[in-house]
Write a structure and sequence with these properties.
alpha/beta; TIM Barrel; eight-stranded parallel sheet; 8 strands
Length: 303
């Protein structure tokens, strides 16, 4: 697996009744491929992994793989609250012939560095797929230090990290410590571009690709080409008004519900349904998103 470019973190479409909408998932996969992403990552946090059964995760992975037809990589998010459960999910991804897995340390407990290291060692020993480790303090309540990431970078099969730090200094420190052995991916999407590309990040992990994919992929490519002014101009006009509003919402579940509202508003999903405990956003928030979509419409790209 080549961990360069844009990695789309996909939402999971549901029907009005709350079941998986695999037809909509196939169309979503096609849209993301047309956006120019290098890989799709289903069943992550944005994909409501905690609300999916194991069988549903496998259904989602199979549907994305079938729709992708080898045109982009498919990386299964196998995060779970127990190492053994994450291993079982990862072996399912390996059985399906996926291109890699994304995994974070079990997120029920706040663990020690040694426990984090042991988790990835056991995962690597059990599953041969390339591993993208995932650092997200909002989920695990522990921010993986550059020193810890440096240690885990030596674990076989660990080939990348999705570093979801809001601090560019931390991102630079991780690049300095581990960037010679693993791909340090900008996990904050366009918030950190073009600066992450300037610092040497080989890729960007992007939840906004679900509805802004043509534009966010273009921002990434402008950044990598060294057209920093072009990337910033497009970002400020077409993306930042929406993304800044989204990340100012009350909680991550509200943000995920808003993602789906925007997808439906743009005709990219037939239904904005999420699974509890993720509930619908307010009418006022919907109205503001409608206004921002109208404001940015002249600058956003399409496929």
């Amino acid at each position: 697996m080549n961990f360069t470019g844009v990695f789309a973190i996909a939402t999971t479409p549901f029907t009005d009744s709350g079941s998986l909408d695999l037809e909509a998932l196939g169309k979503k996969t096609e849209f993301l491929i047309k956006c120019g992403v290098e890989a799709i990552v289903p069943t992550g946090s944005v994909g409501e992994c905690s609300a999916l059964t194991d069988d549903e995760r496998v259904e989602v992975w199979s549907a994305v793989k079938e729709a992708a037809q080898g045109r982009v990589g498919v990386i299964a998010s196998t995060i779970h609250t127990a190492t053994g459960h994450a291993i079982r999910l990862s072996l399912e991804a390996e059985r399906l012939g996926l291109d890699g897995i994304m995994n974070m340390p079990p997120y029920y407990w706040a663990l020690t560095d040694d426990a984090y290291l042991a988790h990835f060692q056991q995962l690597s020993a059990a599953c041969s797929l390339p591993i993208m480790m995932y650092n997200n303090v909002n989920v695990t309540r522990v921010d993986m230090s550059p020193e810890l990431i440096d240690r885990i970078a030596d674990v076989p099969n660990v080939q990348a990290i999705k570093e979801t730090t809001p601090r560019l200094l931390k991102l630079e420190q991780v690049l300095d410590r581990a960037g010679d052995r693993i791909a340090v991916l900008n996990g904050m999407s366009v918030f950190h571009e073009p600066y992450a590309a300037m610092m040497g990040c080989p890729g960007m992990v992007d939840p906004f690709a679900n509805f802004l994919g043509p534009t966010t992929s273009r921002i990434w490519r402008l950044s990598k080409q060294g057209d920093y002014e072009g990337a910033l101009d497009l970002k400020r006009k077409a993306v930042s008004p929406i993304t800044n509003f989204l990340f100012g919402m009350r909680s991550v579940p509200d943000i995920i519900a808003a993602y789906k509202y925007v997808e439906r508003s743009l005709g990219l999903l037939p239904c904005a349904r999420c699974r509890p405990p993720i509930f619908d956003i307010s009418d006022a928030e919907k109205a503001e998103l409608d206004r921002l979509l109208e404001q940015t419409e002249p600058y956003r790209l399409t496929v």
